[in-house]
Amino acid sequence: MSDEALRALERAFEESHAPADEAAWLAARERAGRLERSRLELAAFCGHKAARLALGAAAPREEPDIRKWCHALDRYGLEACVRAAHAAALNVVQLWAERPDPAVAYLGEASPGEQLAAVQEWIECPCERHVEEALRTLPVSRGGITSEHGGHAWTFAHDAAGDAVLTIRRPSFVWNTLLNAALARGRALVDPSLADRAHAMVREVASAALVAWALG
């Protein structure tokens, strides 16, 4: 397909914002070799409507269970897992950074923001040096943060950042990251009965980051 034809499909989508028009554009990009099939499948797995329409019956099965969804990300590669973990952790770290707990103190360890900055550097350049630099931001033990309030949301946000770092070495830690992010988000929502909504919120954040990367 010519560049002109692809641009025409893109313009049609930009004017209509219709999922069907976006699906036509995505499918054409994939056929023209401008969009990797695995990236399109990842976007579909994350629930992107146009990507699912573009793939039709070949679209991957949607996974409602957040834990199984996290584990299934591994099939799309390490970077997908790390990007999902980074997005989820960053979302709650930024949320609680706006209202830090005065009872929380770092014991000479890297802050969650510094940990996530190291993860971002790995995302931009996934070399061994950046792996080591990210791992060095981890505390020797999980005792690097203290709080007189056990189980406070900020400690969950801190753990989410550390788990995002660990995802670089062990992709399965994307689940740990989203779980801690949901716990932090759940506290932000105050009512513990809203746990399912907290899980959905962090999954939406991770999915949005993955779709933007996959289709960008």
General description of the model:
By secondary structure, this protein is mainly alpha-helical. It has two domains: 3-58, no CATH class; 66-215. The protein has helices at residues 3-16, 19-31, 37-45, 49-55, 66-72, 78-97, 112-124, 128-135, 153-167, 173-188, 195-215, and strands spanning 105-106, 145-146. It has a two-stranded antiparallel sheet. Helix 2 (19-31) packs across helix 4, helix 5 runs antiparallel to helix 10 and helix 6 (78-97) runs antiparallel to helix 9 (153-167). The longest helix has 21 residues, at 195-215. The radius of gyration is 19 Å and the shape is globular. The model is unreliable at 143-150 (pLDDT under 50).
Put simply, the count of helices is 11
Total number of β-strand segments?
Answer: 2
SSE string: HHHHHHEHHEHHH
What portion of the residues fall into strands of 2 or more residues?
Answer: under 5%
Q: In a nutshell, what does this entry contain?
A:
By secondary structure, the chain is mainly α. The protein has two domains: 3-58, no CATH class; 66-215.
Structural descriptors:
216 residues; mainly alpha; two-stranded antiparallel sheet; 66% helix; 2% strand
Outline the fold blueprint:
Layout lengths: L2 H14 L2 H13 L5 H9 L3 H7 L10 H7 L5 H20 L7 E2 L5 H13 L3 H8 L9 E2 L6 H15 L5 H16 L6 H21 L1
Antiparallel strand pairs: 1-2
